[in-house]
Design a protein that fits this description.
It holds the Pfam family OMP_b-brl. By secondary structure, this protein is mainly β. The chain has a single domain, classed as Porin (Beta Barrel), CATH 2.40.160. About 5% of the residues lie in helices and about 65% in strands.
Length: about 230
């Protein structure tokens, strides 16, 4: 909550000189995490999304400068060394799993300076290139969890587990640098863009330190309010 209040105060402080407000929603088309030790492959099959708000002012012909923030809901990171065995035969169903689970380790609230250079096409259409540079407040979500179990059913009746072992590892995430580069097109007050983004995050799992930086390609759409 304190981080959200801080972001709001910074944006409110510059609203008096802003001449454009951009409201944007984005969906991640690709996701890459750093591969960490034994518990994370670096892949993710889930989707992340974000909502951002920006205040911008034209400081030179076709060039706007401002500040932004938002909420970035990051996807789960794929667990490493997970072995899954599953088979079904007449009257018997068997499943076994061993390894670290897929987990969402953190979401992010970035606060950043943003610059945009516009390429007007006509009175309605235009294109632009854009850069964001700032700092990300990373919100801790899940701990790393090791899962080791086997279960089976006979004639649809669940049997006692053959073995079962699950352990949670205390996981802490720190804030870090954030940047994004990309571009888009606009039609009147509507716009669509594609951005390559990276959020930096130091992570500590069970006392061992590493980093779990998160990179992605984000497709966004939004609306600009002019002043």
């Amino acid at each position: 909550m304190k981080k959200l209040i801080l972001a709001g105060m910074i944006l409110a402080g510059i609203s008096s000189f802003a001449d454009e407000v951009n409201i944007r929603a984005g969906l991640n088309a690709g996701n890459w995490y750093n591969e960490i030790g034994e518990f994370n492959t670096g892949n993710s099959d889930d989707l992340g999304f974000e909502f951002t708000v920006e205040y911008m002012k034209e400081v030179a012909p076709n060039f706007k400068l401002g500040i932004g923030t938002g909420y970035q809901a990051n996807p789960k990171a794929e667990g490493k060394n997970t072995e899954t065995e599953y088979y079904v035969s007449p009257g018997v169903e068997y499943e076994a799993k061993r390894g670290f689970e897929d987990k969402k380790y953190y979401d992010s609230i970035p606060i950043y300076v943003t610059g945009k250079y516009e390429f007007p096409i006509n009175d309605s259409w235009g294109a632009y290139a854009k850069v964001n540079v700032g700092y990300s407040f990373n919100l801790e979500k899940d701990d790393a969890v090791w899962e080791d179990y086997a279960r089976y059913e006979i004639n649809d009746v669940e049997q006692p587990p053959i073995y079962s072992n699950s352990k949670s590892y205390d996981t802490k995430v720190k804030d870090g640098f954030y940047y994004a580069v990309g571009g888009g097109v606009k039609y009147k007050s509507f716009f669509a863009d594609i951005m390559y983004q990276t959020t930096f995050a130091d992570i500590e799992v069970n006392g061992e330190k590493d980093n779990l930086d998160y990179s992605r390609i984000t497709l966004g759409v939004g609306y600009s309010f002019g002043f």
